[in-house]
Amino acid sequence: MSSVLKVDNIEKYYGSKANLTKAIDRISFEVEEGEYIGIMGASGSGKTTLLNCISTIDQVTAGNIMINGMDITKLKGKHLSRFRREELGFIFQDFNLLDTLTAFENIALALTIMKIPAREIEDRVRSIAEKLMITEVLNKYPYQMSGGQKQRVACARAIVGKPSILLMDEPLSALDAELKISMRRVIQDVHRMTGATIIYVTHDQSEALAMADRILIMKNGKIEQVGTPEEIYLHPQTEFAASFVSKCNFVRGQWNDSYFKVMDQSLIYDGPEVAQAFKNHGLFPVRPEQFHIVKEGKGIPATVTNRQYSGREIHYSLKCGEDTFTVYAGSREQYEPGEQVKLVYQAS
């Protein structure tokens, strides 16, 4: 497959020459046609700035961004406007629907500007509306719609022009938990239906893990790690990547090649795939489900400090010396706060 997007050594600064702030620091990556890329990072990491540079809302300070072989950093005026209309689709957190237009008119707006024949606009809008199950709201105004209906209309508006890239900036953050799950399926359906490349910014790790083909983690304007959800979760390359994407416990000790000796214990863990960054700091990363709590046996001594029941599993907090670890156990594995237990490591 060919690269539809190539980001080449871009930088982005804000402010005056006397007081510059670097938001993007020499980022490079490529995205293949039809890929779903999730961009994650803490507030201020540069993820939305990166999306804005790809969308041409912001201009890069240095570097190049190629979309379908075109350097979009060189586009100006009417050429830039045409590119945005024909190549990019946008779905934002606040839906960004026009209150004075019906759902049909909101969806059709870009097609109208592109001077698509009225009959074709009618057919395309109604076809998209049927697939997204919003035919019944086409004549309604945004104030007459629910949050989920507004988001579906926003999706329809973004894809009706058949863009090559869909840009999404935390599109589900304004929805409640149940509606988020439903809209995840809608966005996945949109991806399958259109075959478009999706660049999706989110702070919700579960969204990225569940939906993306690859995840790009950002920190301080740089890329911390890029990989599939499985690679990011099971084989983090840095402490930040390990702790930012889901919980991760860091066991202290000493490394000897691929073997790790737990501090003050006779326990040895085998870690052939653990990244060098952890070895440099004498740490062994353990996900919450990789620890098993036992009352007796050979493991790290721990004291249960908190228990939270969540249906299929129980989330435990345990004190191990100066560290507090998180463990996910089965709902039938009952331990009480204050109870003395052992933590046994079980590799995935």
Summarize the structure.
By secondary structure, the protein is α+β, with helices and mostly antiparallel strands. It is 28% helix and 34% strand.
Secondary-structure content class: alpha+beta
Query: Distance N terminus to C terminus?
Result: 32 Å
Largest sheet: 6 strands, mixed
Radius of gyration: 24 Å
N-to-C order of helices and strands: EEEHEEHEHHHEHEHEEHHEEEHEEEEEE
Oligomer: single chain
Number of strands: 19
Shape verdict = globular
Give the helix level as a range of percent: 25-40%
Low-confidence stretches: none
The proportion of strand residues reads 25-35%
Describe the structure.
This protein is an alpha+beta fold and 348 residues long. It has ten helices and 19 strands. It has helices spanning 47-54, 77-87, 103-113, 118-131, 147-159, 177-194, 205-211, 229-234, 239-244, 276-280; strands at 3-14, 21-32, 36-41, 62-67, 70-71, 88-92, 165-169, 197-201, 214-219, 222-227, 249-256, 259-262, 268-270, 283-286, 291-294, 300-309, 313-320, 323-330, 340-345. The protein has a six-stranded mixed sheet with strand order 6-7-8-3-9-10, with helices on both faces. Strands 15-19-16-17-18 form a five-stranded antiparallel sheet, with no helix packed on it. It has a four-stranded antiparallel sheet with strand order 2-1-4-5, with helices on one face. A hairpin with a 2-residue loop joins strand 4 and strand 5 (70-71). The radius of gyration is 24 Å and the shape is globular. The protein starts with a strand and ends with a strand. 35% of the residues are buried. The mean pLDDT is 92.
